Amino acid sequence: MAFSGNFMCTSFKKELLSATHNFSTSGGDTFQIALYTNSASFNAATTAAPFGNSNNEVATSGTYTTGGPAGSTSTNSLTPSSSMPSSSGTTAFTDFADKTFTSATITARGALIYNSSAGAGSNTANCVLVLDFGSDKSSTSGDFKIVMPSPDASNALIRIA
Amino acid sequence: MMNSLSFDLPREESVVSVKSTNGRGFTPEELAEDCVGKIISVSDTALPGIRDQARAFERHIEKTVAYYMRQAIQSDRTTVYNALIDAGHPQLAELIRRL
């Protein structure tokens, strides 16, 4: 059991076709990030983010809260990059701002980005992306920062070409 | 001809990067580096003249952003210092001022 690369979840692709996800900066859904140890195993078939230490999610520390905290103001929520979604040429894209968990002691190998309000529901965990950090990343009583790619047609996290 | 959409993530190469600290927060210089990465990007395969000019501009912007971040920190400490003085905590205020 281990992370084995980055994946866009197949369930997410299917849900896009049923208008389940809204990435609009204003009035869009709430997307959150959950961090996991390398004991977790996710791939394109992952449909929902599992929570808690028994599912290999990292423990609560600093501003990171385990268990998929509810609400758009949760400390695990992601902020869309400005003016997203956007397009350039024939490519549409959307992205999030960097996410920093402060005063945290964390060791994580990867993450899941999920929609916590999919389809205007609440406390959902519809998986969007599986992110593999490549190796264990750690912070000790410090900042743990996930640097998202540039929000453009060549680098953004989610691109449709 | 069939139209197709493509939007899978690269399986092996890094999509996001992680930066972390131990026993401290990020410095203005560390944050400025990430900030500039969001403002300017230039391909390694761009024409050398354009690429070099973009990289030089990148370094200049990074220094400018870091400078104003340090100014913001100092300015915020002044605000915190005065708030603590007003709240009757002069020793704590002095501690903040000396950071």
Q: Give the helix tally of chain B.
A: 3
Helix content of chain A: under 10%
- Provide the structure class of chain B: mainly alpha
Helix content of chain B: 55-70%
Query: What are the segments of chain B in which pLDDT stays under 50 over at least 5 consecutive residues?
Result: none
Our count of domains of chain A comes out at: 1
What does this 3D model show about the protein?
The complex is a heterodimer of chains A (161) and B (99). Chain A has one domain. Helix content of chain A is 4%, strand content 35%. Chain A is built from one helix and seven strands. Chain A has one helix at residues 10-16; strands spanning 7-8, 31-36, 86-88, 91-94, 99-115, 126-147, 158-160. In chain A, the strands form two sheets. A four-stranded antiparallel β-sheet of chain A has the order 1-6-5-2. In chain A, strands 3-4-7 form a three-stranded antiparallel β-sheet, with no helix packed on it. In chain A, strand 3 and strand 4 (91-94) form a beta hairpin. Chain B has 99 residues and is mainly alpha-helical. Helix content of chain B is 61%, strand content 4%. Chain B has helices spanning 28-39, 48-86, 90-98; one strand at residues 17-20. The radius of gyration of chain B is 21 Å and the shape is elongated.
Any descriptors?
heterodimer; A: mainly beta; 4-stranded antiparallel sheet; 3-stranded antiparallel sheet; 1 helix; 35% strand; B: 99 residues; mainly alpha; elongated
Tell me briefly what this model is.
By secondary structure, chain A is mainly β. Chain A has 1 helix and 7 strands; from the N terminus they run E-H-E-E-E-E-E-E.
Task: Detail the topology: elements first, then pairings.
The complex is a heterodimer of chains A (161) and B (99).
Chain A: E1 7-8, H1 10-16, E2 31-36, E3 86-88, E4 91-94, E5 99-115, E6 126-147, E7 158-160
Antiparallel strand pairs in A: 1-6, 2-5, 3-4, 4-7, 5-6
Chain B: E1 17-20, H1 28-39, H2 48-86, H3 90-98
Helix pairs in contact in B: 1-2, 2-3
